[in-house]
């Protein structure tokens, strides 16, 4: 845990919780620093984290509204610090994406796209400079994977960016998830490349690391692309189940796994993918690890309220295994 | 890397003056031969700086000795107009026509800034060649003109364009250095008077240099040429309002150029850039097979540095990305000292090996003198090269980038800070005059006015060529007129493609354009006269191959499906409107009126009309990009 101000008192979670600042109270000091415009505390918090936690924390930070000004000021005052400049760019990406929204392209207006691309170009220009100065700086390459997707720079360019990052950070989970998105058919990829990438990353990563969750991520994306009833048959198949359980055993369920900021996301992915396929017993360990915590994103892919979906599937899984 | 040359020849190598080997420049002696500035390779033992009188020039020819020589004139494509483009090349061909078959190796070349005649052989052969060239220049075999014009056109059709072929037109327009991108229109129409006049005024004693790879020239040399002034290279034009700029190009090619001051640092930067691209795109990424950069002097002061990488279509986005990152790295000054040292060592080694081959030095000195560039004294060249730092290279990288023009396939490069080069004329440049609707696409209108012609589409999509700024007007006997402005924008006035383009409108264009810009073409093959591609014409045949280029700046064609939808809804709208009208009339005469049926009929009719109108509007996706400038006529 980074040496920061004493964490603000957080009431113990009552009932299911999806707010990341509640499910992961260690992030609260970062939010406080951002809201106070305190660059020194922000920097102290972020630089005290490992790669994966840091990438997660940066994502949380850049989603806090109106942080551009203090980050821009920090970048101007610390021109040699790649962190400040990267955060500005990463924030621009989020500002742009908020304008675009996460809807399918046909529901996004021309004006939204224009403004979205403007923000991404501003971000990209900063990031080109940061990567030129610091070719092994993971956070900048990670942000450039988001700009590559938003600016539709093509599969080979996204892959090049990932490869440049992986040359120095072979198991960088946040970027693996970015590239995985790009490899989805909706962004111009193929199912084959999507699953192959997920498996390759999962196999290559040391036991207990997060990469196994990419397998769940890939199956979720595949399931989302399919129509009924093919989607249900797909996610229920024993092949998918076996891949999921094997990947889970090597990652978040492995004894070497160290808890971190991504745990709620990863367990949610496994729990959701296995439950949707009807593999409740296999989903149970993930529900146990989650407790009252859940990530709205994968659960939101199911019809209805994410919280009810989480609670219902958890009840089924835990009842069957109790 | 191909240079801005119209012919591929040895003269292209003469542009290496900035890398002149140090120890040997001094072995070149400057003098005058037949009233022409001359450069002779002095023997190593003689005083290197000697520029004494022509006392030794008239030596007796020594039997059988192999020498090389060249005669170069400061005239090239940069001095031509688009309408006369190829005239220097024609003079070069005509001047060489009388050269018989000999054992001597000789050739001619026309570059952007020079026309060069060079030869290697025995002294007798060299003298015969040079004397023959000058005799021909004094009295060109103009009976050959028709044939040589045809040969030029054949030569052009067989020439393959380099990857950087289109860059000059985007940077400079359809004039000066931009003509390197264009076909030699002069080969279609130049007459004997024009060619003779060009030779008499440009191929003169005062506008030439001679080089000889021996310390004396034979007394039998007779290079009598007309008197004339030295003609400096014209100032470069610009068609790029903002740089760094980008344009879209074909698959598989990423190419960029930039213009920097000629310097030792710039030659080193070109090498460093080539190595950086090779490292990033080939060795590390494996995205490209070829990744390189080259330095070529443009004029006395400036050089063009061109960077190029090829790519498989599947990998080309990564090539653009890697290209952008390599440029950013050099701009930020991230060049390994070892990289700089190895480039420096390579340059020094090349210079030393050239010292043993002094011919290249004489050529380099002579060609530099021709463009008015001062060759660097040897000691200074070495000192500058040795003193060069990473910061110097970085400064050139920044200067180069600031002027750069990048041609990228696929998605382009606007995302990386390159501003797209203008695709249309400024909207305020639009001319007024008679309006002629496009038969193919109602959104586009041809305007023929008193000041110029324009092709106007939806929004600000305006292409204008003012008569006064016309680089060339290609005129076909069938009435087709292709006007190209000095800025490179084109308007195709094709009577078959626009409504009511009458003889008198064509006559107005012919009266208004500068007579010197008109290129009268022979009758076109009917297959090459563009035909409108609309369902009304019931023609599903493909457009003739030549039509797309002949029409020049043309809007992207509406998709067939869209057109079909438009036609169907129009017919439907018409049918429903007529039906509703008839129903209304019928109802008026009936005492027992059915208002519900009337309302339904009218709602349907109005709906269909609105739908047809909506389809008429530009579709966001089908809007497409129009290339306002094109290289080929």
Automatic annotation (TrEMBL), chain A:
Residues 1-15 have a biased composition (Pro residues). It comes from the Bacteria. The lineage of its organism: Bacteria, Bacillati, Actinomycetota, Actinomycetes, Kitasatosporales. This is DUF4034 domain-containing protein. Residues 1-21 are annotated as: Disordered.
UniProtKB/TrEMBL annotation, chain B:
This is Insulinase family protein. It comes from the Bacteria. One of its GO terms (molecular function) is metal ion binding. Residues 1-26, 523-554 are annotated as: Disordered. The chain crosses the membrane at residues 563-583, 595-612. Keywords: Membrane, Transmembrane, Transmembrane helix. InterPro entries: Metalloenz_LuxS/M16 (IPR011249). Residues 1-20, 536-554 have a biased composition (Low complexity). Gene3D superfamilies: Metalloenzyme, LuxS/M16 peptidase-like (3.30.830.10). It comes from Streptomyces montanisoli.
